[in-house]
Amino acid sequence: MPKRVAVEIERSLRERLASGEWASTGRLPTERRLAAHYGVARNTLRKAIEGLVREGKIFRHVGRGIFVNREPSPIEQIFHVLRDVSPADLLAVRQIVEPQAAALAASHASRAQIEAIAEAHRMGCESGEIALFEQWDAEFHQRIFAATRNELLFAIHRLLSLIRQQNAWIDLKRESFGEEQRRNYCRSHARILEALRRRDDVAAEREMRLHLEETRQALFGRH
Amino acid sequence: MPKRVAVEIERSLRERLASGEWASTGRLPTERRLAAHYGVARNTLRKAIEGLVREGKIFRHVGRGIFVNREPSPIEQIFHVLRDVSPADLLAVRQIVEPQAAALAASHASRAQIEAIAEAHRMGCESGEIALFEQWDAEFHQRIFAATRNELLFAIHRLLSLIRQQNAWIDLKRESFGEEQRRNYCRSHARILEALRRRDDVAAEREMRLHLEETRQALFGRH
Amino acid sequence: MPKRVAVEIERSLRERLASGEWASTGRLPTERRLAAHYGVARNTLRKAIEGLVREGKIFRHVGRGIFVNREPSPIEQIFHVLRDVSPADLLAVRQIVEPQAAALAASHASRAQIEAIAEAHRMGCESGEIALFEQWDAEFHQRIFAATRNELLFAIHRLLSLIRQQNAWIDLKRESFGEEQRRNYCRSHARILEALRRRDDVAAEREMRLHLEETRQALFGRH
Amino acid sequence: MPKRVAVEIERSLRERLASGEWASTGRLPTERRLAAHYGVARNTLRKAIEGLVREGKIFRHVGRGIFVNREPSPIEQIFHVLRDVSPADLLAVRQIVEPQAAALAASHASRAQIEAIAEAHRMGCESGEIALFEQWDAEFHQRIFAATRNELLFAIHRLLSLIRQQNAWIDLKRESFGEEQRRNYCRSHARILEALRRRDDVAAEREMRLHLEETRQALFGRH
DNA sequence: GTGGTCTAGACCACG
DNA sequence: GTGGTCTAGACCACG
């Protein structure tokens, strides 16, 4: 391989890295050893390494050596994205998922699950403080997802709830949440519940969609 | 109340643990240091620790020390659930999310993004091997989610893809994926792409829904 | 400058490039001459150049030399972006700009300009073919911008029109534009015109906003 | 019809010109080659060309050849208008666009984008020199537009910035920009940023509107 | 003759 | 002893 030696070595290093050859110690041999191993000058070896460094697959410490950069697990990567999501994106996803969850709940919920949803509705409407109302509001939506009997859908909803918890600002505007708006929410919940009781999936979907539209306007006005 | 000393220390350790005092290093001081700190014998200190060990909040390695058992983050817990989700649940979620993602892509994609989707379509149809086809198939769907310009939606799709990768059996039936079915998929993709090009969100949503219905039948037959 | 010689040279080259020293011929001296000029080895000189190449400020041709890469003018850059804009982004901008343009027109238009707007309205409502209707529709909006007497605002509207022309797909869905929807548009135009005639800027803004909301729903449905 | 030969050739050249046959190189063949191509004398060929030269579609350089006179694109024409826009028109457009951009940013910005805006604010307030302050001021507004995630809106803002750069006199009065006014700007920026952090779109829009009103008074006094 | 690649050595700051 | 930088030379493919 006289041509493009550095490229060949880079490919080789990439493979050895992926194979986990250096995973146990977390470090690569020194530049000098690697150069000797491949029978090239140190400069060439360094060129071969450059790309891996730029991609963050390895990193170098002067005087210490070259280290493998443990890749963040896919879940860590996703988690990182989730922490930085905009309110608009979050609401858009809710508008996609929640109406259809309501429809699924209408056809899959047990009687007990519907009663649990009804309880969350009643507690929310009766609660005096805003904080308590919000808690029961969250519970209302959560129980609808539980009633879909789709564990994945339920997990996704828990994920969305988590984002809302970690980004307090998302619901911040609700602090200016008036008594009137609260009564509106209560009425919307009542209509969703009504549809679920009737096992009317079309109506459940529609009412949930309208409720989220109402939420959107409370949060973003006319945008 | 000399006998209650251990209980007091346990309470103290519990608080310090919860406060995150040892979260950074992930380890507690040695038993000897802790005993000295509280001014008690090592035996007493060990009694105070026992409960925490039983609850799994800390664990001991002989000769190494006492370590904090970092609780799995809520997201890790959620992810744990995701690991054994049923194929039916997964498909149901896809049927909820993907058609609406296609609709969003129709209105939010840049021209370049639509061309990227077209490329994935073309490569998929042209690829000879099944493995290659599946790769471009996944890419096709992924690029549609990217074109929605909703980072959260995109992250959720990556999550679903991850589940499919880690539960290879979910798509098991696809191994019996015939040439005819592949041509059908190709045609479906073409229709979705066509709708995206026309920026027709209603058609994009419909074609994606039909495509997933086709997938459902390939996986589960007609029920 | 014994330390980081390459960095120093890069800085120098960057300055000379920006000063236009090589703009007339469009090419730099050879690597060998540059290295001699700075009194360094060719390798070092190459390292100094690398960054400029990556940024696209210069490019190299084997056997020919190093060339200056003429930077696209800001207007070319903007134009490039405009060609790749999504329908959603375009509509959002219209929703920002047009209602306020209508309000400005209400207070700044001459009587003749309002009559010109009225003419576009009348011609649109009367026109039999869709193509003709669309032309007069565009004219209606354009004349409102002209009536704001703000040349910049008018220019921006022409820019938006240009984008729509160059991206035929943006209005493609209007081909499925029914007779009923057309009558709705006609009624909306009438209400906007009415407000302009009354010199009621608040009403003009509101009616234009409602009209664009109507357009949004025609294009994107419920997204 | 031998006399009409020139007319025929002119028609042919016109077509070939419109077809873009010579658009890539920007130049036509030499007169001699064209004459040979059409099988006519150079005199006839020159006659055929005359009209095109008079219309400015092509132009001749003695000793160099015949060149296509690329017509300015519609966007270049629009840009030409923009070059001498009045300060009042520019400010009016900013007053239309920027408050709504701020509102959009409140709902669409990622956390990282809001931090970038905060950085521009902080750097502006801390900077000693006026020139530096103005640079960070521009950056503050630019980053808000970036945070809207609307590429068209961002491009329009870049266009407005370009106009301001090329018409330095538009902001001329700012040279008499006192320390007090600067502190006011800083406070306004702080209030806008505060609203963005709270994700309060209504407040963000209002604070931006007040800030631009403040700018208007600094430029034009109270009229 | 040009840029692209490589060699075999050297000294440096840092750990 | 490690990675970071640099030298002075060489041969290559390509124009």
From TrEMBL, chains A, B, C, D:
Source domain of life: Bacteria
PROSITE patterns noted in UniProt: HTH_GNTR
SUPFAM superfamilies: GntR ligand-binding domain-like (SSF48008), Winged helix' DNA-binding domain (SSF46785)
Keyword line: DNA-binding, Transcription, Transcription regulation
Span of the signal peptide: none
SMART domains per UniProt: FCD, HTH_GNTR
InterPro entries: GntR_C (IPR011711), TF_FadR/GntR_C (IPR008920), Tscrpt_reg_HTH_GntR (IPR000524), WH-like_DNA-bd_sf (IPR036388), WH_DNA-bd_sf (IPR036390)
Pfam family of the protein (one): GntR
Molecular-function annotations in GO: DNA binding; DNA-binding transcription factor activity
Domain HTH gntR-type: start-end pairs: 3-71
Alphabetized CDD domains for the sequence: WHTH_GntR (cd07377)
The protein's name: Glc operon transcriptional activator
